[in-house]
Write a structure and sequence with these properties.
Blueprint: E1 5-9, E2 13-19, E3 34-40, H1 42-52, E4 56-64, H2 67-78, E5 86-89, E6 95-102, E7 105-111, H3 120-125, H4 127-131, E8 135-138, H5 144-157, E9 161-163, H6 173-178, E10 181-182, H7 186-192, H8 198-204, E11 211-212, E12 217-221, E13 226-230, H9 242-255, H10 260-274, H11 287-295
Parallel strand pairs: 1-4, 1-8, 2-6, 4-5, 8-9, 9-10
Antiparallel strand pairs: 2-3, 6-7, 11-12, 12-13
Helix pairs in contact: 1-9, 9-10, 10-11
Bound molecules: alpha-D-ribofuranose.
EC number: 2.7.1.15
Keywords: ATP-binding, Carbohydrate metabolism, Cytoplasm, Kinase, Magnesium, Metal-binding, Nucleotide-binding, Potassium, Transferase
Active site: 244
Length: 296
């Protein structure tokens, strides 16, 4: 089978991860247990996950000319990702994500740094690449105008675009119309479609809107009925990157021509495996692991 060709337009950051038994309240200081730096950023995570699942992946992004930037570039290369459009920019630091792992979940503050230089003009430079892909993926740690430009470019070229609207911010009707797949989690859904009934929103976007509900699975409307494709129970170590793994696996399966239900099940399995190890990319599975996991 030919490998699907996927471009990821998005963020590449270094994750600075603290583990602690207790999450500090505002104004409180607590003592933590460990500190680690690991590659992250929603775009980079999705690129790495898709590559491990067998896609030919091209990263379109920016990092600084600093140690974190060098480490991220090295990480892309060791995961077999094409980096012709991964620019190391002067005068801007590599993005960082400041993560607290406590009480069974994470909280994250992202400082975008060089990710803000993934501009519409930069995406236009990668136009020929994007037009040659089976699928493009994008998230929201790059500027809003970049998402709009990528949506227009993909729509015009007839290339499916998967928009993972994370972190949440309003997305215009025009952009929603131009993307093929939209994958908010529950919180992002509430913020994007404020005050609207979830089932009505799902009905408005059949086979386009996929709401990820963590351990419960993923919900969508198939044109006839609302469906919940259930997730797989596992022992969770770290949920960071689970959404990225879901998106990458879903995108990879779709780009391979698999149908929606099969793609969603594949994505749920990949995401469930990803949470069994520390770090956003630490538990991202290989294709063989997902296929084996689907048989269990
Ligand atoms: O989705 C997980 C990612 O979000 C982390 O790797 C961190 O970089 C934040 O951007």
């Amino acid at each position: 089978m030919r490998k699907p060709k996927i471009a990821v337009v998005g963020s590449s950051s270094m994750d600075l991860v603290v583990t602690s038994k207790k999450r500090p309240k505002p104004g409180e200081t607590v003592l933590g247990d460990s500190f680690k730096t690991v590659p992250g950023g929603k775009g980079a995570n999705q690129a790495v996950a898709a590559a491990r699942l067998g896609a030919e992946v091209y990263m379109v992004g920016c990092v600084g000319r600093d140690d974190y930037g060098n480490q991220i570039l090295h990480n892309f290369k060791s995961n077999g990702i094409h980096t012709d459009f991964l620019q190391q920019v002067p005068n801007e630091k590599t993005g960082t994500a400041h993560i607290i792992l406590a009480e069974g979940d994470n909280s994250i503050v992202v400082v975008k740094g060089a990710n803000d230089l993934v501009t519409p003009a930069y995406v236009k430079k990668a136009r020929a690449l994007l037009e040659s892909c089976d699928l493009v993926m994008i998230q929201q740690e790059v500027p809003e105008e970049t998402v709009a430009e990528t949506a227009m470019l993909c729509h015009t070229a007839g290339v499916p675009l998967l928009l993972n609207p994370a972190p949440a911010r309003p997305v215009s009707e025009k952009v929603i119309a131009q993307v093929s797949y939209l994958t908010p989690n529950e919180l992002e859904t509430t913020l994007m479609f404020e005050g609207k009934d979830r089932s009505k929103v799902l009905k408005q976007y059949p086979n386009k809107l996929f709401i990820t509900e963590g351990a419960a699975g993923v919900r969508y409307f198939d044109g006839k009925e609302e469906l919940l494709v259930p997730s797989f129970p596992v022992k969770t170590v770290d949920t960071t990157g689970a959404g990225d793994t879901f998106n990458a696996a879903f995108g990879t399966a779709i780009a391979e021509g698999k149908d929606l239900k099969v793609s969603l099940r594949f994505a749920n399995r990949a995401a469930s495996l990803s949470v069994t190890e520390f770090g956003a990319q630490g538990g991202m599975p290989l294709r063989t692991d997902v296929e084996k996991g689907l048989l269990e």
